[in-house]
Amino acid sequence: MDLSKIKTLIDFVGQSNITELAVTEKDTTVRIFRTRPSSESASPSSSSHVPAIDTSSTASTFTEILSPDTASVPVHAPIFGVLHAAPAPGENVFIRLGDTVEAGQTLFIIEAMKVFNTIVAPRAGRILHIAAIDGSEVEAGEMLAEIV
C-alpha cells in the first residue's frame, strides 16, 4: 500500500466519527485508530487528537496473549518510525533500565509521518531490558523493551 493511500485513510479517520479503521491490501494490513482522552487527563491542549496508525503483516498478530506465569513481556514497535525516549529534546527519558512502571505508563514515542504515537506499558512491572536507541529508526514488530 503506498503512502498516499495511507495518508488518505488517516485524513478520513481524522475527519470522521469512527475510532478505528483496518484496511488490508495484498499482504499488508493498515490499522488506523483514534483515542479519546479520559475525563481526568483531558486538557485544552489534548482535546484535538491525531489518529495513530498501526501497520503490520497479516501473518503477525496485533496483540500478544500472555499466560499468568509469563516471566517477561516484550514491548514491540507497532509501526515504523523514529523512536523518541523523552517527551522533548533535553528532557529526561521516559524510562531507564530497572525502573518500575505502571500499566499504561508512557515508555516511548514513535514519530511516523509527522504523527507522534505513544508507546505505553502493557502491564505493571520492572524494566528488564531496553533495546531501542533514542533517535534511531525502528521497524514495526521490533522489540523496544522488556518488562518483568
Q: Could you explain how this protein is built, in words?
A:
It holds the Pfam family Biotin_lipoyl. InterPro entries: AcCoA_biotinCC, Biotin_BS, Biotin_Carboxyl_Carrier/Decarb, Biotin_lipoyl, Single_hybrid_motif. Residues 72-148 form the Lipoyl-binding domain. The chain is mainly beta and 148 residues long. Helix content is 9%, strand content 36%. It folds into two domains: 3-57, no CATH class; 73-147, Beta Barrel (OB fold (Dihydrolipoamide Acetyltransferase, E2P)), CATH 2.40.50.100. The strands form three sheets. A four-stranded antiparallel beta sheet has the order 4-11-9-6, with no helix packed on it. Strands 8-7-5-10 form a four-stranded antiparallel beta sheet, with no helix packed on it. The chain has a three-stranded antiparallel beta sheet with strand order 1-2-3, with helices on one face. The longest helix has 13 residues, at 3-15. It is elongated.
Give descriptors for this structure.
148 residues, mainly beta, OB fold (Dihydrolipoamide Acetyltransferase, E2P), 2 domains, 4-stranded antiparallel beta sheet, 1 helix, 11 strands, 9% helix, elongated, biotin
